[in-house]
Write a structure and sequence with these properties.
The chain contains three helices and four strands. By secondary structure, it is of the alpha+beta class. The chain has one domain. Strands 2-3-1-4 form a four-stranded antiparallel β-sheet. The longest helix has 15 residues. The termini are far apart.
């Protein structure tokens, strides 16, 4: 008998399972006003493209992000963590980034999945 230990995915379902925060676009942008110099600008105008912003932040800090409707999730998914890290080390690493960004959020374990179709 075989046991599948990976996540089963297809194009119509998404998930976030790891340590991170959940947030809405407006509250996230408002919290980041103090670091506006790192925000990427949309080529068509002076507005910040929110997905580009999340891509830039997560790339810089080696995190990941996903969204479902108006909710966003950012952190380290368990499957992307370093194998020698403890769960507490993963949580503390994410909390350090969240604090550095000036977000007033507490990192928690998130298990979310949704239909994306």
């Amino acid at each position: 008998m075989k046991i599948k230990i990976d996540f089963v995915t297809n194009s119509s379902s998404c998930s976030f399972c790891g340590f991170g925060i959940s947030f809405y676009e407006d509250e996230f942008k408002e919290s980041l006003n103090h670091i506006s110099s790192m925000l990427p600008k949309n080529k068509n105008d002076d507005n910040v493209d929110f997905y580009d912003l999340l891509d830039e932040i997560t790339r810089k800090y080696n995190l990941s992000w996903k969204n479902s409707n108006n909710s966003y999730y950012m952190g380290i998914e368990i499957g992307n963590a370093e194998l020698n890290q403890t769960l507490n080390e993963i949580k503390n690493k994410v909390q350090k980034v969240i604090d550095e960004l000036g977000l007033k959020k507490t990192v928690k374990f998130i298990e979310e999945s949704w239909y994306d179709g």
